[in-house]
Amino acid sequence: MEFENLIKLKKGVLMKKIKNLSFFLLLCSVVVNAAPKDEANRLLDKEQQRLEQERQLNEQENRRKEIESSKFAPDIEIKPVEEENVTTFLLKDLQIIDKDKLLSEGDKFQLSKKYKYKEIGVKELNILLNEANAILVKKGYVTSRINVNTDNIQQGEITFEVITGRIDKIKLNDNSFADKLKKFFNKPKTEGNVLNIRDIDTMTDNFNKNASNNFAVNIEPSDKEGFSNIISKNEIKGKTTVSVGYNNYGDEQGGKNRLKIGLDIESPLGVNDLLSMNIQGVKRKKVDRSWKIPESQLLPGQIAPSGPVPGYDPKIHGLLPPQRQTLLWNITYRIPFRSYSLVLSGNKSIYRRSTYAYNTIYDLSGSSTSLTANLSKILYRDNKSKLTGNIEIKRKNSKSYFEDVELTNRNLTIGTLGVNYDFALFKGVSGLSVSYSKGMRIFHGEKDIEKGETAPKAEATRY
User: Fold this and answer.
1) For 74-78+85-139+141-195, which CATH class?
2) Does residue 323 contact residue 391 with C-beta atoms inside 8 Å?
3) Residues 411-423: pLDDT tens digits?
């Protein structure tokens, strides 16, 4: 009886040692194989960075096309009037009547100080008048002008009055209901407003964002004095575009032989909007992993098999085949509203990879899903530059797995404020961008409360 108890006791001790040894080996495996987790996160971050770079490149290209399509008016060359000064007078005061405030206080000061308390004649007066009109043209007020009143010239007083040019009618094609709808969404100004060529540039930008549009606009005189008509015409050629592409972006496992299919539908709602969809990926390579035993199904003391045959050795039996899958899809909808532009987008990426360690192979997988809303507005533009402000909110979920073990599952909400400044430089176009991003708690975004110092922060600030 004592002998049987002794055998049971030794058997229990042996099983305990086996369990402890198994736990130790598993712990060593986790420590040594921390690299697969890092590899999984690295692959996921790399894929997201590539998608973000593609999005930024597309935005930069759109901004480049917009500013290149602007009507960059050449500098006005002031030609002095070749006329002899018969009579001169001392200019004591230059009054400028500007009810619509087309000229800034700085413009008025520069005009006033040029000849103030100086003897001037007809030649200098014409030069000053030309300079005043040139300022209006450079500001985009191409149909406004300056009238001069010299009734009090003997007392040394001259009055400049700004005669404002306004919009009478805005016409698009035949002015049908569809044309009026597009005009309502894309024109920055309405009838009766001051006419500024920069607003017409914005209207042109909104139409030319869609490749199928061939937009042209003219300014014609109206029957009303001081008013002009904006006559525009748009020819549409091919509203739907299907594209097929092939590339080798990415790494050897997930980027080789990548096929891309895209569909662009221009003006689906008839307001010069755009719906764009594309999907790209690498054909999934299925491999036999039936020999693997999930961690949850391992018996006490059982060691997971390293290959499809007992005692598997890659030097003898050959390397196990890696699995491979990359799938990326994106859908974007853009709608303009005068000087505003709203862009809604969603994208999802899925990947499967494999990594070799010791005498076995481990499978990595992950996914990332994001939804983004971006609202931009043209804050300022002139004949050689444009300033755009934007506000964006993004909801992002990222997951990564090592075999069937979840490594990360993060929900982030990121708010961004930014400005883009595009300008003509020499014979090209250049740009500057400044942005501020902050992790937020809305839409179930992660909180940093009770997180360790080394844990990734969700409410981080970036510039």
Assistant:
1) alpha beta
2) no
3) 999 999 999 998 8
